[in-house]
Design goal:
alpha+beta; Immunoglobulin-like; 3 domains; 4Fe-4S
Length: 479
C-alpha cells in the first residue's frame, strides 16, 4: 500500500505535460537523381528534328553575311538592330513591344490547343538538357551503366569518364555562350578578340556568365528548372481546359495493371493492357508517372508515348495506351474528328484572330515604314537673336537618321512663316544605316503683331526617292 506522500508525487507527475517528440528531419524531399532511359520512336524523331533546326539556326545565323555585314546583329554599341535587309533604331522600340505581345499570344494559342508543346520541342532548357544527356550517354553508357557507375566507389575509371563528360559539357557551354554574345557584338570581331584574349569587360562577363548558367542548368539542375523555376509550369493551368491536347494515360484500358506474356489476351488474365513495366517512368525527364494523371511537371515530350507503343507492339496490344488526347476525349471516347472539332473552340479562335491581326498589322507597318527619321532640337543657349540684316534667327540641330542600307542625299526645307528661310547648307548626304547631326540657322523677318513661339515645319526629302520624306514640327521663337 502506497503512502499519501507517494500518491501526491504520482498525482503531481501525472499532471505535468508530457514531452512531445521533436521532428528534426528536413522539411524538403531530397532530390533524386534521374537517370533517363534512351528511347526511340516517331515523336522522339520529331523532337530531334526540331532540335537540329533550332540549333542550326542559332549557331549558323550569326555567321551569315548580308550587305557586307552580319545578317542578324543586335549591335549594342551602335544601338542598331540588323535583321537581314532591315535596320531598326532605338526609335523603333514599338516593334519590340509588338514582338513581345505577338510571342505572348502565340504562347497562349499553342498552349490552349496543344498544352506544353513548346516545352517539349523548342524550349532551350529542354533542348540543351537533351543535348547534355546525349553527351552523357555517349561517354558513360546507357541508363543501367550510369546507375552502376553512380553506385560504384570513386576510381580512376570513374574520374576519367566524369572528367571527359564535364569537359565536353564545358566546351559546348562556352561555344554556346560565345555564339549568343556574337548576336550582340559582331561575331567575327568577337572571334578575333577571343584568339588574342582582348575581349571587352562586358564581353568577358557575359561569355562566362552564360557558359556557367548553361552548364548548371542543363548539366545539374535539369528537371528542377521545369518543376520549380519555370513560371510557365505554374500558370499553364489557367490556359488549359478539358479540350486541350495533353499526354494522357487511358485507365479504362490499362487498369488493373499486371504482367503478361506476348500474345496473351489481357481479358484472359483479367488485367488491363498496362503490364506495369514502368518504362514510361524511366524515360520521363522529370521523373513523373504519367499513369497518375495530368501533372504540372509533364513537359509534353512524348517519350512515354514512344516507349509505351514499343511495349504494346511487343505484347501484341494496340498502340495508344498513352497518347495525345484531351480530358473530354478520354472520358467520352471521342474520335480524331471530334477531338479536332473541339480544338476549334471560341478561346482558340479568338487567340488566332488576335494573332493574325497583330501579324498583319506589324507586317504592313514594316513594309510601309519610311527609312528616314528626323529629330529637331532647339539651341538651348539662346531663344532668338537679331541677325546683321535685321531678321530674327533661331538655331536648330537636326539629327537625320537614314535607316536604309543605301546612301541618300536629302534636301531640307522649312515653312510655317512668311519669308522663313534656312541660312546654312540645305543639301546633306547621309550614308546607309547611319545618322548625321546638322546645325541649322533659320531666319525670318519679324511679322507684325506676332510674338512668342510660332509653329514651323522642317521637311527632309530624299532627292533620289520622292517617297522617302519626313515632316517634323518645331517652334520658332519671336521676341
Amino acid at each position: 500500500m502506497t503512502s499519501p506522500v507517494e500518491n501526491s508525487a504520482a498525482a503531481t507527475a501525472a499532471q505535468k505535460p508530457q514531452a512531445v517528440p521533436v521532428n528534426t528531419g528536413s522539411l524538403y524531399e531530397k532530390r533524386r537523381k534521374i537517370q533517363v532511359r534512351e528511347v526511340s520512336g516517331r515523336f522522339n524523331k520529331w523532337r530531334w528534328s526540331m532540335f537540329f533546326l533550332t540549333q542550326a539556326l542559332f549557331y549558323g545565323l550569326c555567321w551569315i553575311d548580308w550587305n557586307d555585314r552580319q545578317a542578324v546583329l543586335f549591335h549594342l554599341v551602335e544601338r542598331k538592330f540588323y535583321i537581314f535587309g532591315m535596320v531598326l533604331w532605338p526609335q523603333d522600340v514599338i516593334y519590340l513591344a509588338v514582338l513581345l505581345v505577338l510571342s505572348a499570344y502565340a504562347l497562349f494559342l499553342v498552349t490552349a490547343i496543344g498544352g506544353r508543346l513548346f516545352c517539349g520541342y523548342a524550349c532551350p532548357q529542354t533542348v540543351y538538357t537533351e543535348i547534355f544527356m546525349w553527351i552523357e550517354r555517349r561517354i558513360e553508357g546507357d541508363r543501367a551503366a550510369r546507375l552502376k557507375l553512380d553506385a560504384q566507389p570513386l576510381s580512376l575509371r570513374t574520374l576519367r569518364l566524369r572528367a571527359s563528360k564535364h569537359l565536353v559539357w564545358l566546351l559546348l557551354a562556352f561555344w554556346t555562350s560565345f555564339t549568343f554574345v556574337g548576336y550582340f557584338t559582331p561575331v567575327k570581331e568577337l572571334a578575333a578578340s577571343v584568339t588574342t584574349l582582348s575581349l571587352g569587360p562586358w564581353e568577358w562577363f557575359w561569355v562566362f556568365f552564360y557558359a556557367g548558367f548553361l552548364y548548371m542548368q542543363a548539366g545539374f539542375l535539369r528537371e528542377q528548372v521545369c518543376k520549380h523555376m519555370c513560371p510557365y509550369a505554374r500558370f499553364q493551368g489557367v490556359m488549359f481546359d478539358p479540350d486541350t491536347l495533353i499526354i494522357g494515360y487511358d485507365p479504362e484500358r490499362g487498369e488493373p495493371r499486371g504482367p503478361r506474356r506476348k500474345n496473351v489476351e489481357a481479358a484472359a488474365k483479367k488485367t488491363g493492357d498496362c503490364i506495369d513495366c514502368s518504362l514510361c517512368v524511366q524515360v520521363c525527364p522529370t521523373g513523373i508517372d504519367i499513369r497518375n494523371g495530368l501533372q504540372y511537371e509533364c513537359i509534353a515530350c512524348a517519350k512515354c508515348i514512344d516507349v509505351c507503343d514499343e511495349v504494346m507492339d511487343k505484347v501484341g496490344s494496340p498502340r495508344g495506351l498513352i497518347r495525345y488526347s484531351t480530358e473530354n476525349a478520354m472520358a467520352q471516347h471521342y474520335g480524331p474528328r471530334e477531338i479536332l472539332a473541339h480544338l476549334m473552340r471560341p478561346r482558340t479562335l479568338l487567340y488566332g484572330v488576335i494573332l493574325t491581326v497583330i501579324i498583319a498589322g506589324a507586317a504592313w507597318s514594316l513594309a510601309t515604314r519610311t527609312p528616314l527619321k528626323v529629330d529637331v532640337l532647339r539651341d538651348r543657349g539662346s531663344l532668338s537673336r537679331e541677325a546683321d540684316d535685321g531678321r530674327i534667327e533661331n538655331v536648330f540641330t537636326l539629327q537625320i537618321m537614314n535607316t536604309d542600307e543605301q546612301a541618300h542625299r536629302f534636301a531640307i526645307s522649312v515653312d510655317g512663316l512668311d519669308g522663313i528661310d534656312i541660312v546654312d547648307e540645305r543639301i546633306v548626304e547621309v550614308a546607309g544605316a547611319s545618322a548625321r547631326t546638322l546645325p541649322l540657322t533659320v531666319r525670318v523677318e519679324a511679322p507684325p503683331g506676332k510674338k512668342g513661339a510660332q509653329t514651323i515645319h522642317f521637311e527632309v526629302r530624299a532627292q533620289n526617292h520622292e517617297d522617302i520624306a519626313v515632316r517634323e514640327k518645331a517652334s520658332f521663337y519671336l521676341p
